[in-house]
Design goal:
With 191 residues, the protein is an alpha/beta fold. It has 8 helices and 5 strands. The protein is 53% helix and 15% strand. Helix 4 runs parallel beside helix 5.
Amino acid sequence: MTAPAIPDPAVLARIGDLELVARWVVEGFLSGLHSARHLPHLLHVLARAIAAGKGNLAGAVAQVAARQRRRGFFMLVSDLYEPATDVVNAIAPLTGAGHDVIVVQVLDPAERTFPFEDATTFRDLESGARMPVTPGKVRTAYRARMGAHLEAMRARLTAHRADYLLADTSEPLDRVLFDYLLRREFLRTAN
């Protein structure tokens, strides 16, 4: 069977369906179509994609885990807007099989600090639901819940032998990952 050709990154960049692009990237790596030389192009395409609709983290991770025969390196990049227990349950088969797992939670700075002042209506990008909010009335509770969520993610993931990294959308993801992997390598060689 002949492997399908690798689409031009410019063509992929015009595909507006993030799930379609992500599925092509994952399936391409799993089937051996992509190699390290394709990674910069793939990261560029994913960076330009526009998310829409609810994702299926557990299903995507299970699909990857089912196809992996040898121990490997897995990196999950997500906003992780789901219960920490669900995320841990999704990666548990990977860490349990001895895979090296890094979970990168990417958030906009405003998602962490809730700096909004004026009353407004927020729209959930996954469900489309709208919620009128008076920021001054909810800011303290929002920050407390966000802090608890972030701490729960960190604690539960590290307890299940996954590395956890909180990243900020104001920094390019490739820079964040490079710095993290450099620190990680330094720590491993220092021990």
